[in-house]
Automatic annotation (TrEMBL):
Residue span, Cell envelope-related transcriptional attenuator domain: 82-226
Entries under InterPro entries matching the protein: LytR/CpsA/Psr_CW_biosynth, LytR_CpsA_psr
Stated family: Belongs to the LytR/CpsA/Psr (LCP) family.
Gene3D superfamilies found in the cross-reference section: LCP protein (3.40.630.190)
Protein name in UniProt: LytR family transcriptional regulator
Organism: Enterococcus ureilyticus
Length: 373
């Protein structure tokens, strides 16, 4: 099918980095796509202190997108949830390069607008997409220009919609929530794909390994969407995203991205931001080394055409140096973890609903709840 006949959809929006590049085709599909995009569009009233003016996608300016996987929408979960998958994508069309960085959900950081220091993934639970955006922007010292969120059902349905994705499961066969994921080179459907992206406990690298698999799943989905060359799957893709995705990217944004930014999606650097695991008052956190954080901030700012911010070089918002020296009494934050969670060995209290969930039947799972992506 000739290029001029192709109309983009992008709902995952970039997701999936290119879900900015959903390829739908024809007049009928254009109508369906625009309808779906209007349904997932959700603007947020916010102002970035790191940009004097909003980014101009039509002018091919570098921009960033916050991608969030929300731990609700499936497995009987209907609450607002938390952003247990958090990625930031920077897209630079002039350099024809994109960077996708995963942020550990347990990073101890300031929750902007909530007056607390807490785990990064709690920002969404406390204040939705706006608080999550503001918190990540402050942590990485970059503007967050747009966001895309997708819940667990959306990810599962999207994998099915593109006909599954192929991976090489080098971890060996494992089971999560009753779903068996075989070892070796396999094709994942929605159920097994969601399990593959969510599993943590049987990965020797823990949450770092899980985030690596999440980036893999995202890139596999994007590649499948970009490669579609027919009408057969577009309706399933639209159905997968319409009730499970929210974004502040407009239809015009998505069309401009597809026309002017696609070469940048063919060169993606994958990064990981994590720290040193530490328990504070019996609660697990990741403390970021300020030097490494500054290096990450500088790299991302460069991708966005911004100069390094040397004022951030000496900043240590997590008391990392105190903790590294064993001085746990130095903690000056006001984490609400101890009020949101019950760490009884046989119970887990959801921070959004206060409802006891007996799913977590051991102390490790209570302290390190694995109820997200």
């Amino acid at each position: 099918m000739k290029l001029w006949k192709k109309v983009i959809l992008t709902v995952l929006g970039l997701v999936l980095i290119s879900v900015a590049g959903f390829c739908a085709y024809g007049i009928k599909m254009y109508s369906d796509a625009t309808y779906t995009v209007k349904g997932v569009y959700e603007s947020i009233d916010r102002t970035s202190k790191r940009r004097e003016a909003a980014v101009n996608i039509d002018a091919q300016e570098p921009f960033s997108v916050l991608l969030m996987g929300i731990d609700t929408g499936d497995l009987g979960r209907t609450e607002q949830g938390r952003s247990d998958t958090t990625m930031v994508v920077t897209i630079n069309p002039k350099e024809k390069k994109s960077t996708m960085i995963s942020l550990d959900r347990d990073i101890l950081t300031e929750i902007v607008g909530n007056g607390t220091e807490d785990k990064l993934n709690h920002a969404y639970a406390f204040g939705g997409a706006k608080m999550a955006i503001d918190t990540v922007s402050e942590l990485l010292d970059i503007p967050i220009d747009n966001y895309v969120s997708i819940n667990m059902k959306g990810l599962k349905d999207l994998i099915d919609a593109v006909g599954g994705i192929e991976v090489d499961n080098t971890l060996g066969e494992f089971t999560l929530d009753g779903i068996v994921v075989p070892a070796g080179k396999i094709t994942l459907d929605g159920e097994t794909g969601l399990a593959y992206a969510r599993m943590r406990k049987e990965d020797p690298d823990g949450d770092i390994g899980r985030q690596r698999r999440q980036r893999e799943v995202v890139e596999k989905i994007v590649n499948k969407i970009i490669s579609l060359d027919g009408l057969t799957k577009y309706r399933k893709i639209l159905d997968a995203v319409k009730d499970n995705v929210k974004t502040d990217l407009t239809w015009d944004n998505m069309v401009d991205i597809q026309k002017k930014y696609m070469p940048a999606f063919k060169n993606i650097d994958s990064l990981q931001l994590d720290g040193e695991g530490t328990e504070i008052d019996s609660i697990y956190y990741q403390l970021l080394d300020p030097t490494k954080l500054y290096e990450t901030q500088t790299e991302l700012r460069a991708q966005l055409g911004m100069a390094k911010n040397e004022e951030m070089q000496a900043r240590d918002t997590s008391n990392y140096n105190n903790y590294a020296g064993g001085n746990t009494a130095a903690y000056g934050g006001t984490s609400t973890d101890t009020t949101n969670y019950s760490y009884d060995p046989n119970t887990y209290v959801d921070p959004n609903t206060g409802v006891v969930d007996s799913t977590y039947t051991n102390q490790e799972e209570a302290v390190y709840p694995d109820n997200g992506y």
